Amino acid sequence: MIQLLRSYEHLFERIGLALMLVLLAFVLNQTDWLNRWNLLFYDWNLSHGSRAPAEDIVIVAIDEQSLRKLGRWPWSRHMHAELVRKLAASGAKAVALDIVFAEPDVAQPAADRDLASALADYGRVVLPVLNEQTRLNGPLIETLPIPALAKAAARLGHVDVELDSDSIARGIYLKAGLGSPRWSTLTLALLEMMDPSRWQTLPGQHNLTAGPVFSKSWQRDYHILIPFAGPAGHFQRVSYADVLQGSFAPAAFYGKWVLVGVTAAGLGDALPTPVSGQAQPMPGVEFNANILDALLRGMLIQPLSENSSLLLTGILVLLPLVMCAVCTPRWTLPLSGSILLLTLVVSFGLMQILHRWFPPVAALVVQGLSCLLWMGWRWQQARHALLTEQERTQVALHSIDDAVIVTDVHGLVEYLNPRAESLLGCAQTALQGQPLGAIFHLANDSDGRYPLDLAALCLQQNQLSQLPENGVLVSRNGREYTVRASAAPIRDPQGQVLGVVVAFSDTTEACRLTEQMTYQATHDALTQLPNRHFLQGRLKRAIMHARRVRQSFAVLYVGLDHFKKVNDGLGHTAGDTLLRAAAARLLVCGRGEDTIARLSGDEFVIVLENLSQEDQVAVFARKILEALAPCFRIESHECFITASIGISLFPKDGEDVETLLKNADIAMHRAKDGGRDTVEFYSQDMHIRALERLTLEQSLRYALGRQELEVHYQPQMDLQHGCIIGVEALLRWRHSQRGLISPIEFVPLAEETGLIEGIGEWVLRTACKQAKVWQQEGFPPLRMAVNLSPRQFWRPGIVEMIDRVLRETGLEPCYLDLEITEGLLMKDVEDSIAILHALKRMGIHLSIDDFGTGYSSLSYLKRFPIDQLKIDKSFVSDVTVNQDNTSIAMAVIAMAHNMRLKVIAEGVENPAQLAFLQKYQCDEIQGYYLSRPAPAQQIRALLRGELLSAALKDPNSRRLTG
Asked: Do 178 and 269 fall into the same domain?
């Protein structure tokens, strides 16, 4: 708010100043104080506008030659009559006789009559009218030609001229007269005589006060300024005597305007003009010739009207105020000069182009004054700004965290800010005047010193100088600071060096943070081991070094086995503790030159350099396995973990970072696939298998969209009634190039990559839809068994997804049998029970698949809301020959029946197996003995046939389908 009020205050001050200057310009414009200077500029302006004389204007001069030939003046009026006749005979357009004939010729009355006759005969002669004073302080009177001549003349015209205040004739009134301005000036009367209609509207400044009320005074009107064509003698002249004697060219006067008057010195009227100079007045006849020339050419100069003059003055006065306000201070002086010049150019242009006279001096004076005031105000503002800037600089230097030292050109200290005092450990008063090198000591970590003093180096190079790296500053109290310093020369406007500014800042904490951030960016936060970024850089250097010295090195990819079980069982905190403990054991195994890094999760990489023999790697790998073998005590728990190690060698197994890491990773996974807790060296066939796996994964991602996946169905039979009571939906992949791919080959891959979620929902939907189709075709309702994979079962929203599929396909939940492995259920018993109960409430039939192959507790088993146990085919395949499998099968059947659960055996392939299961009252069977998994069309044919009943009556008969 205060800032706004100050802005308004400055605005009002500027407006008030502008109004005062404009008022001053108006006052000066209305007074005669500057008139002399305006006249001087007018004269200068006029002197630059000379032009060629008009060819149709001729002066008949009563000059010294004529006086010598014709005698003393005045001459007989017979001569004037003869002159008029000769001019008329030569074809002159019109004649103005600038000769006063105020009294009759008493000595020669006939001469008056002769002249009158000549004037009347020619009919185009104008005579002058004078205004004169007959006595001192007497009244003005009009002096006319004698009546006879006045009557004979075509027109009369006044020859009145008003001198300016400096006694110079610059203008004339086109109209003047006693009592009223009734007489035209001599040359205007000449023109009006020839073309009266053209001159009805006159140029010039009209005198509104002229009129009959001033009947006894000499009245003037239509004031104009004369644009003189040139100095005296500029127009064509013919001597009066030569005209009388006929000594002129025949065409000298033809069609021309002729002015007759006195040019001889001391005889006639002569006027000082701007172009003639004070020493050479212009004869009256030539003065009239200039007027006639201007009238004919339309070049009469008119003073600018008062309102226009005031308006233009105001604009020119305000212009510097506006321009200086919007321009920067450095442009004030050039701009002021330009505006003054503009005013002169405007006045000059108006006069030369538009023939309008604008007196510029009032505007120039006020412009100059305003420019002086503005420059003074600018100076005051600059001074105030400088003082403010000095204060701000002082405050800034006292408040910034950078230390600043200023020296003179000899390196002697002149100023220190408080921060510099603090870092140097001494006050400014004790340091002023001392050499900078004596108080500012820098050292670096490499050689303990810098070869050149920073200020001296800056003065020597005459440019900004900086330390190449952070230095160590030791203060007077012995404290060390890590600083970044630079020095720059101080120059005057001419570029001379006046001193040096040394700026340095304490970067001790910043360097510490940088080191910490660099460490965090390159090391694992959990184990403090190098991370992947650090490892990649280290491998690049190891590759360059190995190539240079022609040695090999090894990359060991260490993956902890079954670490996820620890994480899931004991929690992530325990898992983190285990990882730190494992990292510590790895560090103990490694040499000082080896790099041990953690990539992610439970995977570590070790780089062994400078290998002379490859068997060193195997020994080191075994050392790692042995180091990880002892028990880990984690939060009162004893944990045992093993590791799988994959090894790639440079340059045999790769010559770049990515290849070495990739091949070591492949070898590590091969070790896991081979039983874990072992070491595998990379080989080319691993790469081939990995590539095949990757290709298979890529094809699997598109298999569903390409409709390459199929659902086959395997019948399930009730042994008591001998009828098909259901089918199991089994996934098949008919690859476009490889043909039918076994589920054993691609289902684990789908489970691992997460593709099983989308594929499993598609299988469920397809199976439910097919079961509904068979019901609509009239077949007895069958129970559709569908396997749920672990990823599907633990997927959020599994219950909602199954409910949605049932609603969309229209299959009743009681005809859906979901098979779930016991190992899956034991992963999280409580959550498993909750999900199973939710499915059971929907009416879905639940079975535990592959029962006996996992591990479970009977106490948990009885809590599961299941309907059926499925004996794994591994127990059924040799149930008749292997006593252990026989016992397991019998126990499962007995246990299930005791728990009121049904039992189904899968993998039944021969009559002996069927007979065994019938003997021990197994409820249902499934296997090749009944039918191989087949497409829906073949199952439809099976359901229509009678082969099933025959097979039940004769156990030795062949199976239902091939």
From this structure: yes
